[in-house]
Amino acid sequence: MKHYEVVAAIIMDDDKVLCVQRDHGKYDYISLKYEFPGGKIEPSESKEQALERELLEELDLNIEIEREFLTVNHQYPDFSVTMHSFICSALNSTLNLKEHIAFKWLNPENLSILDWAEADLPIVSKLMKEC
Ligand SMILES: Nc1nc2c([nH]c(=O)n2[C@H]2C[C@H](O)[C@@H](COP(=O)(O)OP(=O)(O)OP(=O)(O)O)O2)c(=O)[nH]1
């Protein structure tokens, strides 16, 4: 089974968190789910480099990475992921959705109203408890 190393940005602004919705895709179980922007780490990259690259590619967003938050291991039916999440802030104020179909800025206490990718649930729970 394939395994992916993934990075995800928890972008905080004014006490709200950026949540982005995936498009339809190959796998039903992650199609249209909400996630934190990011993606797969390429072989020559550090986690931080991958995160900065993905945020520019996906959202035209320059970010500052503040700290590591939580690493999650999750097995989906067709592949597994190790996802490293980081608390970040955005350095520019407009974002352009290039791959996702929607976004929301939510207070951490409201994160559970969205339909999250399963691998994200431990991150969502920790944010709801701590923020
Ligand atoms: N970026 C991100 N990916 C997540 C989250 N939760 C989660 O299960 N994933 C999964 C979905 C994908 O299988 C993988 C991230 O890969 P990706 O976003 O670069 O890749 P993708 O499947 O959309 O597309 P591709 O690059 O393979 O064409 O991790 C999350 O919060 N953020």
> Could you say what the CATH topology is called?
Nucleoside Triphosphate Pyrophosphohydrolase
User: Percentage of helical residues?
Assistant: 10-25%
| Rounded average pLDDT | 97
The main sheet comes to: 7 strands, mixed
- The shape, in one word, is globular
Structural class: alpha+beta
Strand content: 35-45%
The number of helical runs is 2
Bound molecules: 8-OXO-2'-deoxyguanosine-5'-triphosphate
Name of the CATH first level:
Alpha Beta
What is the alpha-carbon Rg in Å?
Answer: 14 Å
Which architecture name does CATH use?
Alpha-Beta Complex
Catalogue the unreliable spans. Answer: none
- How many extended strands? 7
Organism: Methanococcoides vulcani
Catalytic activity: 8-oxo-dGTP + H2O = 8-oxo-dGMP + diphosphate + H(+)
Enzyme class: hydrolase
Keywords: DNA damage, DNA repair, DNA replication, Hydrolase, Magnesium, Metal-binding, Mutator protein
